[in-house]
Structure formats: structure tokens, C-alpha cells
Specification:
The protein is of the alpha+beta class and 301 residues long. It contains ten helices and 17 strands. It has two domains: 9-87, no CATH class; 104-299, no CATH class. Helices cover 25% and strands 29% of the residues. It starts with a helix and ends with a strand. The model is unreliable at 1-7 and 26-32 (pLDDT under 50).
Length: 301
């Protein structure tokens, strides 16, 4: 027993400890993930991750597993053509039980809850002491942001190792998407405490939906980050991202059942969910909670 307790750490465990020590140094973490040519690095990662060479693929995924808690046990397939193929992996059928209660708005993705709670007029907080406004995030059109005045919001942070696909939080109709070109700042908690209005500076899309049964508006705002600046939406033929040069206003008409897949990040980032006044956070939803897609996020009025 004593021999086992004194046994040396594996190489992977040593790398994990080194990673944790680096990440705990906030100044170094911020420097390494933000003081870089962010958009150029993001474009390179988009190219590199799609290389289908077997050695490149295997070494890339193995390196990812060493530096992140990557669990592929619930993936629909276990062999991937590229690093990108692994990033956008699908889940096995039934891997995420869905809360079918019609009074519940579900989490659209696996995520860690960041800031959440009431919208104060038109003001929202990305972190303590770092507010932004709905017009900053949605754009200047009052028709886009006024439905969420004094409403509820939840910031959902997808870590690099999480499943990067997102789903309809309720049975709904998507009627409009607004694309906002922007930067690719890291959106980790360290950056959110240092960069004002970070979500409003980054590449993002505002997805406007209407719940089919109740008629309530609900908005999903996927926000890009460094290495993660592309968004694939099933009902649009174009890939939204730093290289997108099309129109910013994208009227559409797409219908989704609760829990049905809507699209995916090319890698992973953040989704902010907004609901109007009268919605409340589901029991237990608070900053730091790790959620799975399909679990209760808010309750309808």
C-alpha cells in the first residue's frame, strides 16, 4: 500500500499539474491567451485542425487529452478524421436526458454557468464590476433588445473539452439572425474580469427565437473566442465567422423541437441565453454550476 502511495506521477499527471500551475497565474494566463495575434492565430487553428493526416490527427488529439479533461466516451463515434472532426463530435443518442416539462427552458449545451440572474433595466454583468448593456451586445435596434429589458439571462461557458453542439432550449421558431463582426478575445473568467464589454467586442451572432406554445421571445447569443470564431447554423448555408463577408441581417424561418440540434461552434466558446421578464432561473442554477444539455435552465412565467 505504501509503495502505491509513493509511486511516481505519470507523465500525463505531471503535465496536468504544470498546466494547472500556469493557469493559476492570472497575469501569465492573460498574456498567453490574449496578447497574441488573435485573429491570425484563429485562422491558422481553423486550417490546422482540419488536416486529415493520421499522425497529425493522432498527436493533436493526444496532446489535447493531456492538457484538458477530454472525455470521448459519450461521442457517437470513436474514430475521427481530424482534430476538427473531434471538436464538432456528436453525442450518442440518449446521452443527454431532456427535461420535457413544458414549463422549463432547457440548457442548450453542456456548459459551466457564468454570470446569471436578472437584467437590470438594460444592463447585464459579464463579471462582478464589469457591466455591459443589451444595445452593446444586440445592436442599436430597440426591437431586438427591448423584449429582454428587466428579463433574465444566463451566460454558459463551453470549455475546450466539452461537446460544442447546441440545441433548442424549447420548441421554437427561429425568425432572425444578426451577425456582428468582431475580435476573438479569450472569454475565460480571467479575461472577463479584465476586458470591459468583452462579449460586445467579440465575433457573435444573435439568434432570435419565439417559443411555439407560449409566444415568448428567447434569444441565444453565441460568442466567438480565440481559436473559435466560426459558427455553423443548420438553417443557414454559410459559415459565420471572421471570414464571413455576407449581410449582417439574416431573416429566416426555421422550426425546432425542444432539444433538437441547432448548430455548433467549430471549437467552443460561450452562449448567452436571454428571456423576458417573468422567467426565473431554475432551482440550483448559479455561477459555477456545471450543466448538461437538456437540464433545466429557466422556468417560464
Amino acid at each position: 500500500m505504501e509503495d502505491r502511495l509513493k509511486s511516481p506521477l505519470t507523465f500525463g499527471a505531471r503535465l496536468g499539474r504544470l498546466r494547472d500551475r500556469v493557469l493559476q497565474q492570472e497575469d501569465l494566463n492573460f498574456l498567453l491567451t490574449n496578447r497574441l495575434p488573435r485573429i491570425a492565430l484563429t485562422r491558422f487553428m481553423g486550417w490546422f485542425s482540419q488536416r486529415r493526416h493520421p499522425l497529425v490527427r493522432s498527436l493533436s488529439i493526444r496532446g489535447w487529452q493531456l492538457f484538458a479533461k477530454l472525455d470521448l466516451s459519450d461521442a457517437k463515434k470513436q474514430h475521427f478524421d481530424s482534430l476538427h472532426d473531434c471538436f464538432i463530435r456528436e453525442l450518442k443518442p440518449g446521452a443527454r436526458p431532456l427535461n420535457a416539462d413544458p414549463a422549463v427552458l432547457c440548457s442548450p449545451c453542456d456548459a459551466i454557468v457564468g454570470a446569471c440572474g436578472a437584467v437590470q433595466g438594460l444592463q447585464v454583468f459579464q463579471a462582478k464590476g464589469f457591466p455591459y448593456t443589451l444595445p452593446d451586445l444586440f445592436g442599436p435596434d430597440p426591437a431586438a433588445f427591448e423584449p429582454y429589458r428587466d428579463g433574465q439571462f444566463v451566460t454558459l461557458r463551453l470549455t475546450s473539452s466539452m461537446v460544442h453542439r447546441f440545441h433548442a432550449p424549447h420548441t421554437c421558431r427561429v425568425h432572425h439572425v444578426t451577425h456582428h463582426a468582431g475580435d476573438t478575445w479569450n472569454v475565460n473568467p480571467i479575461a472577463l474580469k479584465r476586458v470591459e464589454k468583452l462579449f460586445c467586442k467579440n465575433e457573435r451572432a444573435v439568434i432570435h427565437t419565439t417559443l411555439t406554445a407560449s409566444g415568448h421571445p428567447v434569444a441565444l447569443v453565441p460568442v466567438a473566442a480565440i481559436l473559435v470564431a466560426s459558427l455553423r447554423l443548420h438553417w443557414l448555408s454559410t459559415l459565420l465567422g471572421v471570414d464571413y463577408r455576407g449581410p449582417d441581417e439574416l431573416p429566416c424561418d426555421a422550426r425546432f423541437d425542444k432539444g433538437q440540434e441547432m448548430g455548433w461552434f467549430q471549437h467552443g466558446s460561450t452562449i448567452i441565453v436571454f428571456a423576458p421578464r417573468g422567467f426565473v432561473l431554475a432551482e440550483g442554477v448559479a455561477a459555477g454550476l456545471e450543466l448538461r444539455m437538456g437540464q433545466a435552465l429557466m422556468r417560464l412565467p
